[in-house]
Write a structure and sequence with these properties.
Blueprint lengths: L6 E4 L4 H4 L2 H8 L4 E2 L14 E6 L5 E6 L10 E9 L3 E11 L12 E10 L1 E7 L5 E7 L27 E5 L9 E5 L1 H12 L3 H4 L1 H7 L3 E5 L5 E6 L6 E9 L3 E11 L5 E7 L14 E3 L6 E4 L5 E6 L12 E11 L15 E6 L5 E7 L1 E3 L9 E5 L1 H7 L9 E6 L1 H6 L4 E4 L9 E9 L1
Antiparallel strand pairs: 1-3, 2-20, 3-27, 4-17, 4-19, 5-6, 5-13, 6-12, 6-15, 6-16, 7-11, 7-14, 8-13, 9-10, 9-12, 10-11, 14-15, 18-26, 19-25, 20-24, 20-27, 21-22, 21-25, 23-24
Length: about 450
Amino acid sequence: MNNTMYHLFFRRLGGGVRKYLPALLVVAAFTACQKTGFTYNNIVENNQTDYILSDTLSVRMKTIQRDSVPTSYAGVLLAGSKTDPLFGKITASSFFQIAQPASIDIPAFGSKYDSMALIMHPNGYMSGDSTVPQSFQVYRVTSTIQTALNFYYLYSNSNFSTESTPIGNFSGIIRPRTDKVISVSMSDVLGNQLFTMLRDKSPDIIANNTFLEFFKGLNVRGGPNSPAVTGFIARDTSLVMRLYYHTNEIITTVKYVDFKMQAPNLQFNRVLADRTGTPIETLKGTVKELPTENSGNVAFMQPITGAATRIDIPYIKNLAFLGQFFKIMKVYMTIKPISGTYTDNPLPARLALCELDNNNNVTDTLSYGQLTVDNLYNARTNYTYDITNYCIKQQTVTDYYSRGLLLTPSNTDGKTTLDRLVIGDQKNAKNKITIQLYYLLYK
């Protein structure tokens, strides 16, 4: 542990208060760390009781890499690609199943196919350049979309085979906060086939189980040189493949039928990152951890691509040896994003602090940090956490049960956005993490 700098709030309690000191210390004894042989009856007036603030408690930080994260059942479709100088080339695509129309009666005569489109509703999220045209392609899935045996989720690295040629294409500017609907033109060859099957009531399209064998699903991905990743609503009322046709009876009537998204638990986003040329490019293969001393005193977090920040406070147990009586009163942790890293990438509004075991598995969520934004100078932008209870608990646990800390957005944001964070460790020149420890010490 580093040398502690003491800021003395009160030292040598005054005579008027000292006569009550034994009683106060007895109350504190229930949560205090006590050395062998020390009793409060031995307190003498020459001893000192200090209330101290230390801001040099040692912290270790590292970036860890997870193989995958669950992305199914999120209700969000992500598609596109983006190049990030810190996190690499990120590509996102989405897989989902569609269901045949509930019931349809198309006249055998006097009806004709018109067109087909995939109707998508932006959810307001885009990461990347929204001022230039976005491009998407739609592929027909050729293998059954399903979870692995004994698994409940599909993950960011899950994949299913598709046809090699797209059946839908879109190119155009998307204003994610104002555009309500995006229509992707679909193959007329496929549209005509589906129309004929509906009109003739083909067994492959009447029953759900046979339809899923015939049409296993769709995959939406970014087109060539896609400049951004865009979010869309993934629900049966908002994500549909719509087939337009008309009937010539007394008058010509334009109609349509919808193949709606189904099985929301099987809709998932495949998100991959090529880290080549980035500060964390060594995190690949069997390398799963990168200490901040090897990455310029900076740690990185982007949950959907598997990058996470682990924080450890290794010398908490040693605090008990500072004096005969030691008690933690309050501990605050302040995390500062690196200036310049969130100009075009807004900071996560909510950032959770979780406990991690020695294998980097999350065991508990402690709290959400309070984000303070310094819009003028950016120097005081930070997240603040009260980690008092965590530190008290870590004083007495064995090494096997010791826990580190993980920074992550909320579960929903973590698997539906490209939210990311870059923070400094204790040796970072400008944006360093700080721990403020308030404790009571009897020497």
